[in-house]
From TrEMBL:
Family under the similarity heading: Belongs to the ERG2 family.
Alphabetic keyword roster: Endoplasmic reticulum, Membrane, Signal, Transmembrane, Transmembrane helix
Source organism of this protein record: Tetraselmis chuii
InterPro entries cross-referenced by the UniProt entry: ERG2_sigma1_rcpt-like (IPR006716)
Name of the protein in its database record: C-8 sterol isomerase
Amino acid sequence: MFRGVAVVVALVAVTLYLSVGHESQYIFTPEEMKAIAGEAIAKGEGDIDKVVELVVGKLRAAHPEFIEPAGEWIFNNAGGAMGSMLILHASFSEYVIIFGTAIGTEGHTGRFLADDYFTILHGEQWAHSAGTLQKEVYTPGDQHFLPRGTSKQYKMPEECWALEYARGNIPSMMPFGLFDTFFSTLDVVTLGQTVMTSAKAMLQNAVLKGKI
């Protein structure tokens, strides 16, 4: 009896996991992110604090129900790189964050069941795909697209901030975002902040707003 129930629960969980990340579940678009970033960069005139404030304000005006209220910045260690992030939206099929560093970092992008759009707000990001001999360079207003199933090496040589938007199977990205904590930093405070903020937003969007 117990084994049968366990099998059913497992099948339901797998079905729900695999059903995440379809066009009908998305409320944001890469084009919107690029447009909002471009407007904020133009009005911010190089002041990153002002640019971030403008980006958050424009997103909140466009999606008042789905952009998180003012939250706290959280460190993020993933793929060997370190930066900090401000979570603006987290659901099972999408996330929107401000991510970056004031001093530079370098690491692995990860390889996901999701598309990732990284729109530069300030500074530069460099990237390298295996087999290419020249680096890619992304500057303010550029959108670095990482298709699902692919990966790169990336570097922010100095201060760099970006508006990051991912769409697809977001739960599949979580291990990459957390494993450095278990096997390197052991920063349980950051782990707790990341899990609590992400899980709370995902569940609220799914249960209270019907947003997968």
